[in-house]
């Protein structure tokens, strides 16, 4: 059982998009389970084994209770599997429905379904669909139905107007340390692999700059932006005071 299930397409999406919020939830005593859809085997840099070890180290830094991998094919989520005829996307919906019913979280996090990377788009869509379908008794019968109360989408390549931000000032160092666990993806002059946006020497600084920007918008030091369908409910308007 988990309080929070957080989904990402690749083994570094969660750290980059919402690592601060995950660290904060864990610090508050919530059980956070991180779930990667793929092993990131299509990544320009790093091997699957390296990326698995990096993801485990980052989960530890963030205080996650567990980190799972659905081992779906990286980069091919939209396409059909030649053997079953089902797309990886269809398989993903059934796997995520099952996981939601098994772990019974109240909060889900997932990529935003509009982004430059097609896998991010699909993970955002799949988790949104699965959240709904997991609440239907007659869909995929077996485990008891369960619909998490809230789905928060985080942003990655593309930044869209958020519907809320989370103050991560208390955990910004933990977030940046978790991103730095992904050493194979980041700047390293000793590695001969091709350069990517992540391997720029200033990548971590650039990601921090985004959180600094949204923090400044909200009157705090650092904040992560999120999108929810429908405005989030505020129990106490005074809680909006900076
Ligand atoms: Zn990704």
CATH class: Alpha Beta
Radius of gyration: 18 Å
Question: Which regions have little confidence, pLDDT < 50, spanning 5+ residues?
Answer: none
- The CATH superfamily bears the name LmbE-like
Bound molecules: zinc ion
The shape is: globular
- Biggest sheet details: 7 strands, mixed
Number of strands: 7
Total domain count? 1
Spatial gap, N to C terminus: 34 Å
Mean pLDDT: 93
CATH architecture: 3-Layer(aba) Sandwich
Strand order of the largest sheet: 3-2-1-4-5-7-6
Structural category is alpha/beta
The DSSP helix count reads 6
Features:
242 residues; Rossmann fold; seven-stranded mixed sheet; globular; binds zinc ion
Q: What would you say this structure looks like, in words?
A:
The structure is a single chain. The chain is an alpha/beta fold and 242 residues long. It has one domain (4-229): Rossmann fold (3-Layer(aba) Sandwich), CATH 3.40.50. The protein is built from six helices and seven strands. The chain has a seven-stranded mixed sheet with strand order 3-2-1-4-5-7-6, with helices on both faces. α1 (13-27) runs antiparallel to α5 (172-180), α2 packs antiparallel against α5 and α3 crosses α4. The longest helix is centred in the middle third of the chain and has 16 residues, at 88-103. The structure holds zinc ion. Zinc ion (ZN) is lined by residues 9-10, 13, 117, 120.
